[in-house]
Amino acid sequence: MGYFASQFFDGYRLQSNVVFTVEDGCIASVTPDAEPGQHDVLDGLIMPAMVDVQVNGGGGVQFNEAPVADSLLQMSRAYLTTGTGSIMPTLITDDIAVMSAGADAIAEAHKADPAAIPGVHFEGPHLSAAKKGMHSAAHIRPLSDDEFALFTRKDLGRVLLTVAPETVSPEDITRLVEAGVIVSAGHTNADADTCFKAFDAGATGATHLYNAMSALTSREPGVVGSALYRDDVYCGLIVDHQHVHPVSATLAIRLKGDDKLMLVTDAMAPAASDADHFIYQGIKVLRQGPTLKLADGTLAGSVLTMEEAIQHTRFDLNIALESTLKMATSTPANFLGLSSSIGTLQTGSQANWIAVNDALQVQRVWRNGVCMS
Which segments of the chain have a pLDDT < 70? Predict the structure, then answer.
């Protein structure tokens, strides 16, 4: 099957008049500066389906509260309508039974469609109580053999683990990385020296930059300064104008560049749905306009979608279109080590793409080469 797109973004570059073909659910060829010929002409800007490495829930379901494969199917379907083709379902701090059940669900969903569910993000439980945010203090705990065995399962696809570097030693970070786990610093009050030791030990990410981490100050760079300083560290950024001030977001993008700054949602159950609340470990979290908050006013994730994230980044922050799209596609895919299959439209990539209009609103979506809308 062949297609023609007058506007085409391959995950890295904007191209014009591209013919691309699909075979067996994958991109078979990409030819720029071509003529439409007999190919199916697609309207709008064609780009890879987006990649979100931090999705706690969506479509009305919260993964921790329903850690089963049907939840992942519901989340995946909901986010596909807003242009996200690959999600890393995120289990926030909980007991080992919930984490294990969630891992079983991930293994099932990953086997069925590894592009849609490329892996799992364990956000906790090895965090700092001082920067726990909405995470349950009762379940924050040191790394044990049980968790290590869970994080290093071989049937989960990519495993991303957010830890507070002051609670997990550099030696344990190295042990996790050597076992294939991607380690990110988050929900942490660590100083710069502790962060640098974690990065030297193999940690390669900073989870939702600025939020739930020690700030950059004149005499202590904290986690924010450390992550921005290191060229080898990827930073996730929630561009909903609630978690991060637009000036701070813009500065981070300028410093990290579009190859190390990735857009994330940190979305909860109400995202991509009409739900007005969700429950986490018996606590009701309310949707208040564009935010989710606990009763004490603590931000509790977001209702952001990646469609909204690229709109905010492009039009509110005035970031170049190519950079904006890259931060939502190939950059998170590269962070996961999966850019040959997701987040790009190149020969061999999974045929997951979307069409957006000039306002970056999703018009149509394709999964495995099949139009879904």
Answer: none
